[in-house]
Amino acid sequence: MASSSAEEVLVLYGSQTGNSEAAAEQLSSLLPSKLSTSDNRTLTSRCMHLDDFLELEQAKWTRLVIIVCSSYGVGQAPIGARKFREVCDTILERFGYDDTTNDGKNNNGDKMLTGVNYALLGLGDSHYTTFFRNPTTFENALSTVGATRVGELGKADASGTGNMEQSKVIERWIDSIWKDLQPVIDKPMTEEEGLKLKKAHEQTWKLCLELYKEWKQTNYFALIGLFLPLGGVIVGILVHLYLHGYTWGN
Q: Cα dist. 153→120, 168, 178 in Å?
């Protein structure tokens, strides 16, 4: 497949207090200068909520995705990631967790997200027993349906101290992740990779529409086609009445 002049990498996040959002925005702004390609493709990046990726982007996966997300409350998803969490929960309910794929070396063939590569930075607070539950759910669901994690699973603890202070862990993860991301986008996307991403988009969006029926778009062109004949009949009746001398208001 001929190489494109540009390739996009999405940075997706869910954030309750703003820490995950800040890290995601930093990653997105750094990405074009930190990564390069063998054929001089331009790398671009967009940063958005995980839920917006599902609803507004209709789950159009890029070859490489970076996810930054925290746990909130008793292991729940934070703002901007609640529907993404529901999708992940549904995946695990339907397919079960396959821990043989959760090692960054996913070779499980033709699954829903085969061809999608992701890096994951999770935030949480070990003061709570549900520490890291939400990022863990993302990790388990994505890997179970064929996505491949690249790089270390980041674990930034809000209760960390000293060298393990959350902000320091986040900075170290950001500084070190580029070497793991580079091989994914170094070469142009092949036709086979493009087809896998198309399938990942279609199957994820299909699942979303099962869960969120209100996301189904109204086919306005179909509605216009439906009412045009009726409009023509009404216009015909009015013309007929006018030609036969009928006037309104008398």
A: 6, 15, 13
Q: Which residue type sits at 112?
A: M
Assigned token pair, 196: 């896998």
Query: 66-75 b/e with 16+ CB inside 10 Å = b?
Result: bbbbbbbeeb
End-to-end CA distance of the chain: 72
CB 25 within 8 A of CB 33: no
pLDDT digits (tens, 9 = 90+) for 17-53: 999 999 999 999 999 999 989 888 899 999 999 999 9
Q: CB neighbours (10 Å) of residue 229?
A: 9
- The answer to whether 23 touches 158, Cβ cutoff 8 Å, is no
- Dist CA 124 CA 138 (whole Å): 14
Q: Is the per-residue pLDDT at 197 higher than 90?
A: yes
* CA–CA dist 135, 120 (Å, integer): 8
Alpha-carbon distance of 99 to 95, in angstroms, equals 12
Amino acid making up residue 243: L
Q: Are strands 42-49 and 117-124 parallel, antiparallel or unpaired?
A: unpaired
**E strands present in the chain:** 6-14, 42-49, 64-70, 117-124, 148-149, 154-157
pLDDT at 232: 61
Give counts: helices (H), strands (E), the chain: 7, 6
